[in-house]
Design brief:
The complex is a heterotrimer.
Chain A lengths: L25 H30 L4 H9 L1 H34 L5 H8 L1 H4 L2 H12 L6 H6 L8 H12 L1 H14 L2 H8 L4 H30 L2 H7 L9 H10 L3 H34 L1
Chain B lengths: L11 H28 L3 H8 L2 H34 L5 H7 L2 H4 L2 H12 L6 H4 L10 H26 L2 H9 L4 H30 L18 H10 L3 H35 L5
Chain C lengths: L2 E10 L2 E11 L4 E5 L6 H9 L6 E6 L2 E2 L5 H4 L1 E4 L11 H10 L9 H14 L15 H14 L4 E5 L7 H18 L2 E6 L2 H7 L2 E6 L2 E6 L1 H6 L4 H7 L3 E7 L2 E7 L4 E4 L8 E11 L2 E8 L4 E7 H6 L7 E6 L3 E4 L6
Parallel strand pairs in C: 3-8, 3-9, 6-7, 7-8
Antiparallel strand pairs in C: 1-2, 1-4, 4-5, 9-10, 11-12, 12-18, 13-17, 14-15, 14-17, 15-16
Classes of the chains: A mainly alpha, B mainly alpha, C alpha+beta.
Chain lengths: 292, 280, 336
């Protein structure tokens, strides 16, 4: 598992002792840099610019009409609700699992760690599929749910479940290496000084992990709001009811309402940019803290 | 359970219990529904589904395009990581931060954007079509989309290893008369390739299951441009749960095999770092 | 407060850290747990603190069985090897921590906490640093904050795990003297773990020599140095030369210290043995010599430099060496 803590980004001076004998000749450098920048421009910059260009291609009025359209607003609302529930839930899970894994030894620990990596190994479509198999009309619990009038698939609860499933590893993956690296001495000291478990957690553990926690939450949130595949499978695409922003974008696009689709998509692109910035800032702060 | 390592720290029962409960409800039970469903298929039916011409075409596309994308990313990703770690140029920080865009950008947005770019009258399509390169609604388009998706994996895998490399081995090679290229080939690359392969494997694994960024550009014609995840979704929409499950099982198994391979690669990588010239 | 440890056993998986360890600690004494890495001394300290549970045996404070009590209930002050200061709190908040987490009924008022923390910071000579963060302090300063923090809760026992291990030599020596003074002032029963025999001998009222999970000897510094109970104790507490020989028909190992050797050109007494000088190294007022004995054994000698000059000793010279003190350990004797 790599995390922000362990992945020191290349922001400090490159390998401090790249001395004269190791410098690549200028033409090599220029070529490689050009190659790298070209690749990045083509595959990353261009698409990003295209999103905004297409979004505004119909003029400002069309843009605002698209994002204030009632159905779009419903989609935004649903996305926010889903994030507001799945993010805290998964954060609590992440802290809990990290505490158990980083501070204790027990049989099955490796299995637990592997399980936590699961959503990353599995296609989003399959992540949605398993919930359909469980709660769908022909699913294992389908008949029982119909009997009791509970709708999970093709309704908001299904979306919640799929999103929570897809995003649950993020915080745990950040915190486990972080807490392992920090060691348990401060917490032991707190206990030896008379603190109760909650006092120790509140006063010692939480402050120490807050940056890693925030980082994990930023990533979690980005994924929760942007998830498409899994949610697409469970949502039923019921306009105004079970569409999140990504699904709404899909519908608009499939109806050839290109500008409107990109207008709404630009909101997600903005979210992505904010996420990138937040990620960067937090990484920088984490590295600074480690160095002192 | 075995006794916790530390008899002093509180909360073991609480945190482990909650974690296991959470995982069971969210992960294990739903997953078991999949296996239950698969088990209810007869072997003959299972094979028929999984080896149908349509499925086979889908595997070919998904695996083929993912492999091509992973290899592309391996090459360019290595260059990118090298450039970011070793060179200084204006905007380096920006580019470094930008590498994570495919992680942060929702797949649907990436999907419609890439399709629009590569369509006949898109910014890129306009240049490519006259040259006879058809990207939209073709396997090529799928590969390009998957290249976007997998870009960060190789870069972020190789960067830390590059950063941690001690310069002494390189200096020794230089002092013994090796050219930069020889030094790269004989000294640096052997240290880098586990990370490189790990990153490529991660990109490959991600690409296999990718849906949102690919489903728009791939044209989705059965037997020609249908990726496996779409095949699963289509079967679901037709209430062919059995078919969807069967194919999903194949995907799941290959994902697990990949995961094991990746873990093994990462272990090799770690051992190498601990052995020669890496951080103690 | 006295401490009684009886028949303590502790295993970690396949590894036995402590075997049948028993110890009595007098109220108010400063006790050193001395031994090599892996000997079990830190494990013993942590068991007394309550940071680990023994597999069997008992620990009593002032006659009361405390084996089942948690570390919180034992009221011990523990100073960790790497200080374990709370990195996000100021020095002040670190020291105040134990007072702030007290249950409401026993919690002191804010002004009382202020007074106590400043009193302690004065005591450890860190007044004026209350607002600093741990990362802004030197190693020696952090050590003293850790000590002040442990003392804030008025522990009955002070336990220090390699308190000076991470500091450089000069700071270590200063802090040693300072700790002894502090202990004399406060009179709290204190145990500290160290692998440095010089530190143990200089600081402690009594020394507990630990090896491979067992206590080899307990006694005043002078006693363990001059009347070692086992060859290990002798070898660990200072430089040692060894001879195998028979005494009264029993096989024995004889140890003597390099600085206990008297060198002369003719045998001084019955214990003197002939040797040839193979190396001379002068270090200020003393000289270290390597001697080859008649049967090819290597003997280290540490004598005043002036002696070397007056005897004109140089490599190749023949000389007689007589140990002033011998420690005889019979090989057939069972573990003492």
């Amino acid at each position: 598992m790599t995390s922000a803590v362990l992945r020191e980004s290349a922001a400090d001076p490159a390998t401090p002792s790249v001395r004269a004998a190791l410098q690549d000749p200028p033409w090599v450098r220029a070529t490689l840099i050009a190659l790298a920048l070209g690749f990045v421009s083509l595959f990353l910059l261009l698409p990003l610019l295209a999103v905004f260009a297409q979004a505004f291609s119909g003029g400002l009025a069309t843009y605002f009409a698209a994002i204030t359209d009632p159905i779009a607003l419903q989609a935004i609302r649903l996305t926010l609700i889903v994030a507001a529930i799945s993010v805290p839930l998964n954060a609590v899970f992440g802290v809990s699992a990290a505490w158990a894994i980083a501070r204790f030894d027990f049989r099955g620990k490796n299995l637990l760690i592997t399980l936590i990596d699961l959503p990353f190994a599995v296609s989003p479509v399959i992540s949605g599929l398993i919930f359909v198999l469980l709660f769908g009309a022909q699913g294992l619990l389908g008949p029982w749910l119909i009997e009791h009038g509970i709708k999970i698939i093709f309704a908001v609860p299904g979306i919640l479940l799929a999103t929570t499933f897809i995003t649950f590893p993020f915080v745990a993956r950040e915190l486990i290496p972080l807490m392992q690296e920090q060691g348990s001495e401060e917490e032991e000291a707190a206990i030896s000084l008379g603190a109760s478990g909650w006092q120790m957690f509140r006063r010692v553990t939480l402050p120490n992990i807050r940056l890693g926690l925030l980082y994990g939450i930023v990533l979690l949130n980005a994924r929760a709001m942007g998830e498409f595949g899994a949610v697409s499978v469970v949502s039923g695409h019921i306009r105004g009811k079970t569409n999140t922003i990504p699904l709404h974008v899909e519908i608009l696009y499939n109806e050839y309402q290109s500008s409107a689709a990109f207008a709404v998509a630009s909101l997600l692109a903005l979210l992505a940019l904010v996420t990138l910035v937040a990620k960067r800032v937090l990484e920088w702060q984490i590295r600074r803290e480690k160095q002192s | 359970m075995a006794s916790p390592r530390n008899g002093v720290l509180p909360g073991f029962g609480l945190t482990l219990g909650f974690s296991i409960l959470y995982l069971s409800l969210l992960v294990l039970i739903p997953l078991s529904a999949l296996f239950y469903r698969t088990a209810s298929l007869s072997l003959a039916d299972f094979v028929a589904e999984v080896a149908s011409p349509r499925a086979l075409a889908a595997y070919q596309l998904s695996f083929g395009a993912s492999l091509a994308a992973a290899l592309t990313n391996a090459g360019f990703g290595l260059v990118l990581a090298w450039v970011l770690v070793r060179y200084r140029f204006p905007g380096r920080e920006l580019v470094d931060a930008f590498v994570d865009l495919p992680f942060a950008l929702p797949t649907a947005v990436a999907g419609i954007t890439l399709t629009t770019l590569l369509a006949k009258n898109g910014w890129l399509g306009r240049i490519l079509e006259p040259l006879g390169i058809h990207a939209a609604y073709t396997p090529l388009g799928v590969t390009l989309a998957l290249t976007f998706i997998g870009l960060p994996f190789v870069v972020r895998s190789v960067q830390p290893v590059l950063e941690d490399l001690e310069s002494e081995a390189e200096e020794a090679a230089a002092s013994l008369g090796a050219s930069r290229w020889q030094t790269f080939r004989r000294v640096l690359f052997p240290a880098l390739w586990p990370a490189l392969v790990t990153g490529a494997a991660l990109a490959f694994a991600r690409s296999l299951g990718e849906y949102g960024s690919v489903v728009f550009i791939s044209g989705n014609m059965p037997l020609h441009t249908e990726i496996v995840p779409l095949l699963i979704v289509t079967k679901l929409e037709q209430y062919d749960y059995a078919g969807a499950t069967a194919i999903a099982t194949v995907m799941l198994v290959s994902s697990f095999v990949l995961l094991l391979a990746i873990n093994a690669l990462q272990a090799i990588g770690r051992k190498r770092l601990a052995g020669a010239g890496g951080a103690p | 407060m006295s401490i009684e440890v009886r028949e303590l056993w502790k295993r970690f998986g396949d590894f036995t850290a402590l075997r049948d360890v028993s110890l009595h600690v007098e109220p108010g004494e400063l006790l050193a747990l001395l031994g090599p890495s892996g000997s079990g001394k830190t494990t013993l300290l942590r068991l007394i603190a309550g940071l680990e549970r023994p597999d069997s045996g008992t620990i009593s404070f002032e006659g009361e069985d405390a084996t089942e009590r948690s570390v919180r209930e034992r009221r011990v002050g523990f100073v960790f090897q790497h200080y374990a200061l709370f990195r996000h709190m100021t020095v002040f908040e670190n020291v105040a921590f134990g007072l702030r987490v007290r249950p409401h009924a026993r919690r002191p008022s804010e002004s009382q906490i202020q007074a106590r923390v400043h009193e302690l910071l004065d005591l450890v000579q860190l007044e004026g640093l209350a607002r600093r963060m741990p990362t802004q302090l030197s190693g020696g300063q952090r050590q003293r904050v850790a000590l002040a923090r442990a003392l804030a809760v008025q522990p009955r026992v002070l336990l220090l795990d390699e308190p000076f291990g991470a500091l450089d030599a000069r700071v270590r020596r200063e802090l040693r003297r300072w700790l002894r003074k502090l202990h004399d002032e406060l009179g709290i029963t204190s145990l500290f773990v160290t692998h440095d025999q010089e530190e143990a001998l200089e600081l402690a009222d009594r020394v507990v020599v630990v090896n491979e999970g067992r206590i080899e000897q307990v006694g005043a510094p002078d006693e363990v140095y001059r009347r070692p109970a086992t060859p290990f104790v002798f070898g660990f507490l200072g430089e040692a030369n060894w001879l195998s020989t028979t005494v009264d028909g029993r096989k024995a190992r004889v140890g003597f210290r390099p600085d206990d050797l008297e060198l002369s050109l003719t045998p001084l007494d019955g214990h003197a043995f002939p040797a040839r000088v193979s190396r001379v190294q002068s270090l200020g007022g003393r000289a270290k010599l390597e001697l080859m004995s008649a049967n090819g054994g290597l003997v280290q000698a540490d004598v005043p430099a002036e002696r070397v000059r007056s005897l004109s000793l140089s490599p190749g010279a023949e000389v007689y060496a007589a140990p002033r003190e011998l420690q005889v350990f019979f090989e057939d004797a069972s573990a003492k």
